[in-house]
Specification:
This protein has 207 residues and is of the alpha/beta class. It folds into 2 domains: 8-77, Orthogonal Bundle (Arc Repressor Mutant, subunit A), CATH 1.10.10; 84-196, NAD(P)-binding Rossmann-like Domain (Rossmann fold), CATH 3.40.50.720. Helices cover 42% and strands 19% of the residues. A hairpin with a 2-residue loop joins strand 6 and strand 7. Helix 1 (8-26) runs antiparallel to helix 4 (67-77) and helix 6 crosses helix 7.
Length: 207
């Protein structure tokens, strides 16, 4: 049987649904309707129902969705039901901010290793993580069985670093460097491009 293709846009919206559900759960709300979802996230209610229907029948007519149950289902879909150790490469302004960032769900995401080539940083500790020599990146990432790498180095070094991460066994890369990476097809890449987002923002401001 041919596997049903799930649109990338649907996957992109799942974390938004989960964030919304977590807020409702914290407030003690037990149910949410697709209309409520749509108003909170500025989406069409039919789109909400279609997105969730790709993964199962979670709602009840006239009641909506149980917040706790749906949040649990989405965490399972997104692979957030286990912990992910990450390796950060580049402890400059962005990298050091990520090392001290409190927005990660510590039960799921943890920066376990950090690397840099600056001898003044190597051996220092930031937020409980020792900064290691980037020359040892491949062996150390492989030794710790790290699957997620964060690239926060200058653009000219990003390709080399990404290749080393892949060589060490990383299968997912979050790239903060303002450059496109050429990586194997079986490695997942997420690009954080602040400049692109600002350029798109000012385009819409003129409308």
């Amino acid at each position: 049987m041919k596997e049903r293709r799930i649109p990338k846009e649907t996957i992109d919206r799942l974390p938004l649904y989960l964030r919304c559900l977590n807020k409702l759960i914290d407030r003690g709300e037990e149910n949410i309707s697709s209309e409520n979802f749509s108003s909170r996230l500025n989406l069409n209610s039919a789109q909400v129902r279609k997105d969730l229907s790709y993964f199962g029948d979670f709602g009840t007519r006239g009641v909506g969705y149980k917040t706790e149950k749906l949040a649990s289902e989405i965490r399972d879909i997104l692979n957030l039901d286990k912990s992910w150790s990450m390796a950060l490469v580049g402890v400059g302004n962005i990298g050091s901010a990520l090392l001290t960032y409190r927005g990660f769900d510590q039960r799921v995401f943890e920066v376990e290793m950090a690397f840099d080539r600056n001898p003044d940083l190597i051996g220092e500790e930031l937020n409980g993580v020792e900064i290691e020599d980037v020359n040892n990146l491949v062996d150390r990432v492989s030794e710790k069985n790290i699957r997620i790498g964060i690239v926060a180095v200058p653009a000219q070094a990003a390709q080399e670093i990404s290749e080393k991460l892949v060589e060490g066994g990383v299968t997912g890369i979050l790239n903060f460097a303002p450059t496109l990476l050429d990586i194997p097809d079986d490695v997942q890449l997420a690009q954080v491009d602040i400049t692109k987002e600002l350029e798109q923002l000012v385009y819409y401001l003129q409308k």
